[in-house]
Amino acid sequence: MSRGKAVCCAQLTLLLAAVVGCVQVPDLSLTLTSERTTIERTYELTKYLEHQLKDIKDTYLSYLGPPFSDPDFSPPRPNSSSLSVPSAATRVELWRGLENGARLAQNQRAYRVLLCAMRELARSTLCPYLQSSLLHFCSGLNGLLGSITGLMRSLGYTPPQLGDVPLPLPGDGQPLLTERPASNEFSRKVEGFWVLRELQSWLWRSAKDFNRLKKRLKA
Amino acid sequence: MISFWCRVLLLHQIFTSPACSAVVSPQDPVLLVGSSLTATCTLSPGLQLHTGFLYWTFNGNRLPSSVYHVQGPGALSVTLHNLNGSRQQSGDNLVCHGRKGEVLGGSCLYVGMPPQRPVNLTCWSHNTKDLTCRWSPGGPGEGFIRTRYTLKYKLRWFGQETVCTDYNRGINTCYIPSGLAVFTPYEIWVEATNQLGSASSRVVTLDIIDVVTTDPPPDVQVNRVGILGDQLTVRWRSPPALRDFLFRAKYQIRYRLENSADWKVVENVGNQTSCRLAGLRPGTVYFVQVRCNPVGIYGSRKPGIWSDWSPPMAASTPQSERLQTGSCDAKSGSQTAALRRELKQFLGWVRKHASGCGSVSIKLYDQWRAWLQKSHKTRNQILPGDKS
């Protein structure tokens, strides 16, 4: 393992341990201070994953080859009717008005779907080094999902289960990505491209979500 | 940096862009290097787009219209000749675009060569417990598309073929962790397969005891030999895993000067676990390493495989005032420096108090020393060289 990768591994491990350690406090009478600390650490994990994703995305797009690796490339979003990734994009007034439970639920649902999609991406990658990086990233994403779920429980919310009604989507309401694998490699590449794009949007949005949550809990 | 609200609106726009509007065929073709391909972009029935506005790109590069053919009102084909090996293993990207450059559809091409038979299949066992095998691809063209290598083995006189499953120990390497028999030969080979064909390496026949390697000798110690400036002793222990079986094991020592990259190897150390290095430079730091070859283990008659070198141990030879054999930069010890200072003072006194000694100076002493060194060197050239 290169020195850089070893340092990143160590940083991720520390962050995950801190987040999980916070969430697993057995004391049922959690104070808001404790939850704000958890939110802060989840926020930091989000920023860390956002930073990691930038490198992985560049490598993955190089693996896909041009035009996917071209800076302005934007293929159409895949069209399907199966399980979908809820969009990070939302109207401003809707976003601001989100209640804490709903805000966390949207994040939790998105990362649950994105984690599955990323794992599938990793599985179908032919380059072993890239596959290993993607799997390592998935473990970080899994940690984020775990901390959001734990936070929901400690604040008294029930995390959404699989099979819940999908959240409203912008535009024509068409779902974005499918759980069923695409039938040809080009479509799989487009799907992979969109998984990373969607993940980038969500990580960027989650940072804003957790900041807002922290402010609300202070108030 | 774009403000938060701008990015929200931008994302909203992205999610309302039109869907894929054409089908490209063939999908995922697999082709030999040098072959040609004609692909067709067929527009969806509802799409109001003239084929004259369509264009193709191949790995991001626009293809000239001279290779396009209109197949009908809603279909445009392109012919690629003499294809090179795929640019990336995920497949070359052949994309059909609309007038504004939007992606209408695409297909991934896999252009490569069938594998040639893998070569240089070599295996070694660590302490008779396991087996690691390494090979090289048979040809240069196998890297364009995904080529899978499978290592297989079976006992020579028993027909059960087993597939090796651990390919994580390195490139073109497979590891068999356990379940291996000794005193019976194995047949081992590698099969290479990709979408264009397959090939099998020559079968290697070996007995585990003939390809055994072991750990480097532990507890290597390097010490001075009294005040002798040109010698060091090296001691080590037999590798513990095979300690009871190393009757005919061989050892090798190598050593180098601290600031040199050139190792000197002592080949014939034999079966003992200590050795004295001679002909060294006094007052110098040396790095020393030892390795072991468990030759003759369990009665094997093969040359055996050397272990890795032990971690380097450092030691310094004592400082010596004698002029060294073959040395061309004898350093002044502290005693010599003191002697020179005293001599300088004496000669200064002689010039003052003894008439006729005006030309006597420390420079004369230095000239004498240089002459002395030169005459020693000439005499020593006829003496035997280093004993190592």
Automatic annotation (TrEMBL), chain B:
This is Cytokine receptor-like factor 1. InterPro entries: FN3_dom (IPR003961), FN3_sf (IPR036116), Growth/epo_recpt_lig-bind (IPR015152), Ig-like_dom_sf (IPR036179), Ig-like_fold (IPR013783), IgC2-like_lig-bd (IPR010457). Keywords: Disulfide bond, Glycoprotein, Immunoglobulin domain, Membrane, Phosphoprotein, Receptor, Repeat, Secreted, Signal, Transmembrane, Transmembrane helix. It is a single-pass type I membrane protein. Residues 1-21 form the signal peptide. Residues 117-211, 216-320 form the Fibronectin type-III domain. Residues 313-334 are annotated as: Disordered. Gene3D superfamilies: Immunoglobulins. GO terms for cellular component: CRLF-CLCF1 complex; external side of plasma membrane. PROSITE patterns: FN3. The keyword Cytoplasm does not apply.
